[in-house]
Amino acid sequence: MPPLRIALVDDHPIVRSGFRQLLEMEPGWTVTAEIGSARELGAWMLGGACDVMVMDLTLPDGDGLVLIRHVLAQRPGLAVVVLSMHDGMLFVQDALSAGARGYVTKRAAPDELVDAIRAVSAGEVYLGTDVRTQGNDGEQGGQEHLLPELTLREAQVFLLLARGHSVARVAATIGISNKTAYAHRANIYQKLQLRSDFQLHELALKRGLVS
């Protein structure tokens, strides 16, 4: 089989180093790039190459969901695996909607990342064990259960606004029109009795949805 080239996108050098050692133990696998920011990713995209990209959703200068869409717009055939601290089904669904083929949380056993890369490189979709468990339970897991007043889509918009996204960026991230995003925000304000994005962020802090 031809060598498998992997790029690691995470802002923590120790995390990247640890996973690099793990992945390069697999025969024929090589980590061709360690990338720590959206800016570095943009520069690497000009000439770098890989078969699988492992990406954290939280970078200091960019949102992983937006970056996935940008990367895949330039390289539609690239297999992306999300490796994230977030285990809520909202994040999983948004990542898959953006084009990711795999989703593994950072609490998972290290071998799960190996399994995910092996699966997506073969054209399959892979969800980590803890993510699959949430889905099989038929319950909302992680963060979204703290927003029972909202629909699933409204909860997605709420979380993105709480993370500091503009309405236009929310629309681009989850693939809806600006008009629809504004309508969702208006519904959120009404249901949660909010008057501003500042109050929305304060509520997100109170409920432990953002740090």
Quick summary:
The protein is an alpha/beta fold and 211 residues long. It contains ten helices and eight strands. Helices cover 50% and strands 16% of the residues.
Describe the structure.
The chain is of the alpha/beta class and 211 residues long. It has two domains: 4-137, Response regulator (Rossmann fold, 3-Layer(aba) Sandwich), CATH 3.40.50.2300; 144-206, Winged helix-like DNA-binding domain superfamily/Winged helix DNA-binding domain (Arc Repressor Mutant, subunit A), CATH 1.10.10. It contains ten helices and eight strands. The chain has helices at residues 13-23, 38-45, 64-74, 89-98, 110-121, 129-137, 152-162, 167-174, 178-192, 197-206; strands at 4-9, 29-35, 52-55, 58-59, 62-63, 79-84, 102-105, 126-127. The chain starts with a strand and ends in a 5-residue tail after the last helix. InterPro entries: CheY-like_superfamily (IPR011006), NreC/VraR/RcsB-like_REC (IPR058245), Sig_transdc_resp-reg_C-effctor (IPR016032), Sig_transdc_resp-reg_receiver (IPR001789), Tscrpt_reg_LuxR_C (IPR000792), WalR-like (IPR039420). The modification 4-aspartylphosphate is found at residue 56.
Question: What are its keywords?
Answer:
211 residues; alpha/beta; Rossmann fold; 2 domains; six-stranded parallel β-sheet; two-stranded antiparallel ribbon; 10 helices; elongated; Transcriptional regulator, LuxR family
Helix content: 40-55%
Computed over alpha carbons, the radius of gyration is 18 Å
Taken as a percent bin, the fraction of beta residues is 15-25%
Strand order of the largest sheet: 2-1-3-6-7-8
State the CATH topology of the largest domain. Rossmann fold
The structure class reads: alpha/beta
- The SSE string, one letter per element, is EHEHEEEHEHEHEHHHHH
**Quick one: overall form?**
elongated
List low-confidence stretches: 138-144
Number of domains: 2
Q: CATH superfamily name of the largest domain? A: Response regulator
Tally of DSSP β-strands? 8
**Span between N and C termini?**
44 Å
Q: What is the name of the CATH architecture of the largest domain?
A: 3-Layer(aba) Sandwich
What multimeric state do the chains show?
Answer: single chain
Mean pLDDT across every amino acid position:
87
Largest sheet: 6 strands, parallel
